[in-house]
Every structure is written in C-alpha cells, then in structure tokens.
Specification:
Order of helices and strands: EHEEHEHEHHEHEHEEHEHEHEHHHEEHE
Structural class: alpha/beta
CATH superfamily of the largest domain: P-loop containing nucleotide triphosphate hydrolases
Helix content: 25-40%
Radius of gyration: 27 Å
Number of strands: 15
Largest sheet: 6 strands, mixed
Shape: elongated
CATH class of the largest domain: Alpha Beta
Number of domains: 3
Length: about 450
C-alpha cells in the first residue's frame, strides 16, 4: 500500500533535517551548521492520529542554481513535490521571509499543493513574539505553525496540521519482517546510482564529484513480494584524518548503518583494484556476522566485458578478499541497468541462508564427518566424545562441544566450517564457530 507523501521544503540551513529527525523520531539525516549538508531525499514512515504517511526531507533550495550539484538537488525537489500530497515549507524565524520563499510559495500554490508554513527556530515564547514573521504570516490564508526542531516545541501541532490535510485515513501497517541492506564502499564508485537503479527512481543525488552523498538514507523496495530496506551510505576514504567535519559524521553514520544492517553490500568500481577500504569493510562485516554481497559496479567502464575477462577479474578480487570467500560476487552497471535483478535475487538468498537452521540429524552427520577428517585411528575416533550444536541466535552460530578428556586441535574450526558449507551452503553468511573442551587434554 502506498502511503501519502509529506515533503519538507526550505532554504538551505533553516533546520529541515533537524525537524525531519524530530518528527520521524530518529537520526537519519546529518545535521550541521554548514549549508547544503542534506543533498539527498530522506524518507521515513511516520504514524500520527491513526494515519501513516511518508515524511520526506530534501536538500535546501536556492532557485538560482549556480552549480551542477544544486541543479540536481532542485530537480530532485521538483520531482518529489509533484508526488507529495502535503508540502511543509520551513522558514527560519530569525531570518525572515525571503524572495526565494515567496517565489516557491507561489509556485506551490499555482500547482494547487496543500501547504503548511512551519516557522522554525522559535526556541522560546519570547522569540515567537519578537519574530517579524509573526504578524505578517497571521494575515495569510493559513496560520503558520511555530516550531522548535531543537527542543521539540510545536512539533505536535505541526503533525496535527499535517494529518488534518491528508485526505484519507491510513491505518498504521503491521510491522513486517524486512531485510536491511547497507550499501557501503569508497567514494564515487556508484553507490547512489546503484540505489537509484534498484529503486527505479531518482532519490539520491548522482554527480561526478566525490562525496556527493553525505547522509545515510533508507528506502524500501518490494521484490518477489518481500521487503528489502536499502541503506545508502556516504563513501569511506582511506585517509586517517578527516578534515571535513561533515564527512567525519558521514563515516560514523556509515559504520552505524552497517552495524544495524542484516547484510552489507560492498560496492567498488570494476576498473579499480581492491584496496584498504574494501578489505576493511569486508572484515568488519564478517567480524560482526553480517551477510555479505560483493558487487563490482561500473562494468561499463571496462575496455572488455567478455566472460573470460570477467572470470579473470573475479579471480583477482577473490585473491584480495580470500577471507570472505563465502560471499557471492556479482558484476553490475548502474548506468546501463545490468545485473540489478540478480543483485536482488542474491540478497533474498542470503537472507534465507542467514535464517537456516539444521536438524539434529544433520548436525550429527556433520560431526561425524568432522571427526573422520582428522585422520585419527578408528580406536581414537571412538574415544572422542563430541557434539555439534547450533545455538539460538539471529545468525548461524555453532558450538563443537568436547565432553571427554580427549581434546581436538583448534584447526577443527576451519574443518567444521568447510563441512558445513559443503553440505548446507550458508552462501553469503559468516559462520560463528566455537570449540568448547574444558575437560580435555591434548592428544
């Protein structure tokens, strides 16, 4: 079911993202004193007065774009405003009503949009009374809503005004089991372009400039009747020190998104080598037991794309990422829109593999094969008292418990993982394995 869209619009640095975070009850958009911090559309479901709607944050507008990037932001805002049922025009109460806001208001009114004027940064009653906007806006057709995104003042009134303008009742949907996928990688490898291609709409600003994406944004896609949440993140750099404070916040937000995700989709450019960033992120995903999908994007940049060349490249990539050889590797082109359906197919496969649970019979069979692989004498094998158990956890975790006095070598862990994968797959999923033998002595 498609819920009505409510778009937050305003000039740069009027507190749109802070208001978005306040209304949606999270910290999805990066907030900073610098202008143009938000460059992409953020979307979050909000429930209020028994109505569910999609709240959309946008980049700040100028109406006179002077760079390609702000032109892209403006285009994105125009597309979003066309689909929005309600538009919240945010104004800085301390700055006043500008010519740009007047132009935008007329533009929205001409398009017959339902408009709510939210005067932000009204952090106290005194600020409200002293604002030059107060008397001026009260003379308009709609009374403004005075809010303080910083301390939450007036946000309930704003939500009341929003839901009052929504035409139909939309009861909150029941929470469904979804799969969260964090799209991570270096800067400028096409992560946002890949997000747009998978969603089939332009929701992320795509530019040739590195660091275009600064926010972490979540988007839902329904594929084969299953919900997948795509989390697009800012690019990670190899520099140890980040001079730009906004990019430092982006890096932190990226790692937080990866920690909260079920699956990490590691993206790099197919015409580049695997570097420190890719190795670090892959290791982080494995260590934190996240599903992992490797995607070599931008194959359209390769001089040759025949099967032999791609197999050769895959071999090189696998050597660089040997410690995650269980992760599937795909080639794709966001620009040419190739390999996209395969990505979604594999994400759902990883999701299933992550929830796989083995029966007692299957575990016993694997245990026997593990013991046999040690090449001990039959008499020794019979003396080994061990059992393999799958522990209750969100990800596949196993314990090999040795009850007797005959110990097994630590190398048994790698053997156990190999046997588990040979028999039962666990494609794209790191396995947690522990060897417990508190009473055993070395053989």
């Amino acid at each position: 079911m498609a819920y009505p869209a409510v778009l937050i619009l305003g000039r740069t640095n009027v507190g749109k993202s802070t208001l978005f975070n306040r209304l949606s009850g999270g910290r999805f958009a990066i907030t900073h004193a610098s202008a143009h911090t938000t460059r992409d559309l953020q979307k979050q479901p909000v429930s209020w007065n028994n109505k569910l709607f999609t709240l959309i944050d946008s980049g700040g507008f100028d109406l006179r774009p002077d760079t390609d990037l702000s032109a892209a932001v403006l285009k994105q805002i125009e597309n979003a405003s066309q689909a929005a049922e309600v538009v919240v025009l945010v104004i800085d109460g301390g700055f006043g009503w500008s010519q740009a806001e007047n132009q935008l208001f007329k533009k929205l009114a001409k398009a017959q949009k339902k408009i709510i004027i939210a005067v932000n940064k009204m952090d106290s009653p005194a600020a409200r009374n002293q604002s030059e906007l107060t008397q001026r806006l009260k003379r308009g057709p709609d009374k403004p809503i005075f809010v303080s995104a910083k301390n939450g003042g007036g946000t309930g009134d704003l939500l009341d005004a929003i839901t009052a303008k929504l035409e139909a009742n939309y009861p909150p949907a029941k929470a469904a089991t979804t799969c969260k996928v964090a799209i991570v990688g270096k800067t400028n490898v096409g992560k946002s372009a890949l997000t747009n291609a998978l969603l089939g709409e332009e929701v992320r600003v795509v530019s040739g400039l590195p660091h275009t994406t600064r926010d972490v944004a979540e988007y839902e896609i329904i594929f084969q009747k299953q919900a997948i949440i795509l989390i697009d993140t800012a690019g990670v750099r190899t520099r140890g020190r980040t001079a730009d404070q906004i990019e430092a916040l982006s890096l932190k937000a990226t790692l937080n998104a990866l920690a909260e995700a079920d699956i990490a989709m590691l993206v790099w450019s197919a015409n580049e080598k695997i570097g420190l960033v890719e190795k670090t992120l892959a290791g982080y995903a494995a260590k934190n037991q996240k599903g992992l999908l490797l995607v070599a994007n931008q194959v359209d940049k390769l001089p040759s794309r025949d099967s032999r060349e791609l197999k050769h490249l895959e071999k090189i990539y696998r050597c660089s990422l040997a410690y995650v050889n269980w992760a599937p590797l795909l080639f794709a082109s966001a620009l040419k829109k190739t390999g996209l359906e395969k990505i979604l197919d594999v994400l759902l496969q990883i999701r299933l593999e992550n929830s796989k649970r083995l029966t007692l019979e299957q575990l016993n069979q694997i245990r026997k094969e593990i013991i046999r692989s040690l090449n001990f004498k039959t008499s020794w094998q019979k003396k080994i008292s061990a059992r393999l158990e799958q522990t209750p956890s969100p990800s596949p975790n196993f314990e090999l418990k040795v009850d007797g006095r005959h110990a097994l070598p630590e190398a048994i862990i790698k053997i156990a993982e190999k046997k588990l994968r040979e028999k039962h797959g666990f494609v794209g999923v790191p396995l947690g394995l522990k060897l417990l033998q508190p009473f055993a002595k070395k053989i």
